[in-house]
Amino acid sequence: MSHLNHRMPSRAALAAIAAAVLLAACGSDDPQVSRGELVSDQHLVTLPRAAIDASTAASGAQPLTGAARCGVNLRKIVHTTTAPDGTQSRASAALLTPVVDGTCPGPFPLVAYNRGTEVLKARTLASPTDPETGALAAFFAAQGYVVVATDYLGYADSTLNFHPYLHADSQASTTIDSIRAARQALSSLGIPTSSRLFLTGYSQGGHAAMATHRAIEADASLGLTVTAAGPMSGPYDLTDSFQSSLAALPSGTAGSPVFTTMALTSFQRVYGNVYAAPSDVYKAPYATGIETLLPGATPFNDLFTTGRLPVLLNDLITPALVTAVGTTSSGVRQASDRNTLIGWRPVAPVLLCGGARDPVVLFRNTTRSAQSITQLGGSVTVVDVEQVPAFAAALPPANATPQQLATYHGGVVPPLCMKVVRDNLFAALR
Q: Which helix (H) or strand (E) is 15 found in, with range?
């Protein structure tokens, strides 16, 4: 399946940006289930403007991030939400707030950010040393945006014992609940905010951001209004992503053994009909223990070097799974179709950013989504970072080898798309 190793390459690529930067319920059928209620709020660190500028200047990232307008406070919040089966759960999130002073008085718009695929269960974005959080501080919070960035269900402080990976409804509900909890924290802290709500996220996070946009606009009772959304490099056409990965056998698309495993585990836990036994879809010896492998404690690259997963997708999956993906009545195909985000019309404007040479999440996800939105009468802009002259020096050469493209999805494109979404969409509407 085409998707993301966002953490491993992107943490390395975004580390330069982050190195010195970081030394009300929303409705439920069950009245007993609370959603979006703030459970805890912890201040972690304050980042002065000078430290942010020193970091981005030293790394060469400042032409992308811009000089800091505000200092940044990093907080960790924990809030109530619901599991895919509707029962109550909890999730954690990072909350980045501009330091209110004479040069940064507010009011501040709110950006809800969704991160990319993560294999480590313990990881939280509410960390002073996380490079992705450092990028959020430099690109958004230091420019006068409040940012709430969910850790998703199944990670960090979540009470759910699995991660519903690429499950559109629960990604949306967890993000919505993080927005509600963030607004409670901001109100208690006296931080001036505007009514503007922006959505964005990268790879899995692009899929989650689009799912959140769809969910908010489909339910007025949530009391939320999306100002604009900028999903980045997401597998919006999930069924096509599965099929594209299988079309690239024996290797599959880049990283697909991990992403396929996470998706199959997720959909089996949520829907219960993807397989009767793991050996139906996974070959030996990988079928044994695979349902509890991800997310876990093994880093992305180590999954391959320690033999937990094979490098080639064809060595992992059975012919029965290949057949099932192509059969519309199968459990796995019904799950991918149900979580495909093609065929809806957003009301708020959308900008889709990605890169044409992406070997992980194919750019056709972006073009197919844009075509669908346009055909349904929605407003959408597409930006291919390959077509932005100012980005030419940051991109791999035209004749790049697969090795040179290895960090394209997780390392090269994210900061470029963050700048595009911020400057080409959010800035004019803030």
A: helix 7-18
